[in-house]
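Replying to the earlier thread about multi-chain prediction with a worked example.

Input:
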Amino acid sequence: MKSSHRFHRLTIAVLLVFSIAALALSLLVGSVAIVWNDLISFFRSGTVSMTTMVVLELRLPRAFSAFVVGSSLAVAGVMMQVLLRNPLADPYVLGVSGGSAAFALIVMLLGLPFSVVPIAATIGAGFSIMLLILLARASGDWGSSRLLLTGIVLASGWGALIGFFLSLGEANQIQGMLFWLMGDLRPEWPGFIRVLVLLAVLIAGFIVARDLDLLLEGDLRARSLGLNTSALRLIILLAASLLTAASVTLAGPVGFIGLVVPHMMRLIIGSRHRLLIPVSALAGGTLLVIAEMIARTVIAPQQLPVGVITSFIGVPVFLYLLRRRGLSIPS
Amino acid sequence: MIRLEVQCLNLQIGGQKICDNLTLKVKPGEVWSVLGRNGVGKTTLLHTLAGLRDPLGGQIKLDGLALNSLATKARGQKVSILFQQAQAPISTRAYDFVMSARHPWISRWAGPTRDDQDIVVESLSQMGVEALMHRDVDSLSGGERRRVELAATVAQNAQTILLDEPVNHLDLHYQINLLQGALKKWRAEGRAVVMVMHDLNLAIRFSDHLLCLCGDGSTLQGETSVVATTENLSTLLRYPLQELTLGDRSFFIPT
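Result:
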């Protein structure tokens, strides 16, 4: 037991170092080369040069946003995997991001005030999860491939709806919307509420971590051991919806982070949520910061939507998991 | 003092009556077996007694307290259930599986204590599976897994214990040793045990009371020696049985 504690602490430490290194690297890498003297003079005397402006106003907010979105999606993935008891559950694959984006898009095209968009996105995500549960539950077995099929069909349904609304949009809006829908990070701070949502879910996740472990052992057993499973499910549903909406409204539907990251972390530290949630948050953030860095350097000076990069990573991993592990959650 | 009390319980599944106005009193130290044909609702009855399913009518009390008035965690401290089948293909270490049975006793803030850890190890060794502690439950054989599940029942430390086919998958010597050992201990500790057993003769051998579900909502209950007659059991199982006596024990076999 003792040695495993040390291993867990080591894992967290290593991930912390990785995430800080990724953030730092992301500030230094890009189409405008860093002039060290400029940075030094900024820190010495506050002189703002071209370099410092690029770093402070473009790269820093975008890197930070990437971290928040990556963390949120990874934790949303963990939550959905518990809720649906399926290791392949992911907000993007099962159409939850799509539902969130579609609702957000409708509100935008209707010309409603911008403040309504995040609410619509949250409702869209929650609605999509509930639809998924209702449609897939008939079989009574969460581990079934029926869930995946239902989710994937829902995702393409949302995709079609989004396509329909896009074609109604005006030509000058479409380029931006298309980019957003592929998962795109702009040089924009993540905003207080998104950080708050992430922190709140991390804290709540820590508090109910043991309950989540128990829920994974099956509904009947969890209930017989004194867990109020319907209340817990509601909390998870809310957490997953909020996190998905927070990231979709900021960066569009970025795929596969919620699938790849929790899976890698489970292989390293197991399925105990007390550790899995914070560790996934760190790793998810780091991964998206790196993906974002690749997205804007690989064909520089042009930029790729970051969702393209995550899909390049995620699709092979998803197919591999589907083939290798089947549908059970490794311990 | 009554551990488990059932008053006027009405239960149905798919329109079929399981029991109609069932009244039952299980006292500390008693072991009851539920008998009946396949699909007669034995498992449903057990789930209802565990509070996992609401009855159509009637009341269930544990140590004098109404089951539906208990908080979920308090219920988990008072009654435990061993399910007939493993819930799902989730893999977890045997140690963690048994530790999760301590959930009703573990404080959300403090987490498992040294006591909990000791109880888990003791329970595993009581069922003879402490060597499998670090193995994945998924990698165990059916019988090993069943003993890990029984260890979890022990660890939950409830005064009322419901067992759905506890010796499923077990080798013969484990069936006997386990039932003998565990039931003797539970009887001595004043717990109440209600079990569903597939094997009629094991049920008769190890329980002091029988509850028979006849399939039309009517029930028959009482001390084993009174209820277990060729006539009753033949009617219940809808197949003529014959009683064989060997020493001071009776066996019922199909004619």
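The radius of gyration of chain B is 18 Å.

Feel free to reuse this layout for your own posts.
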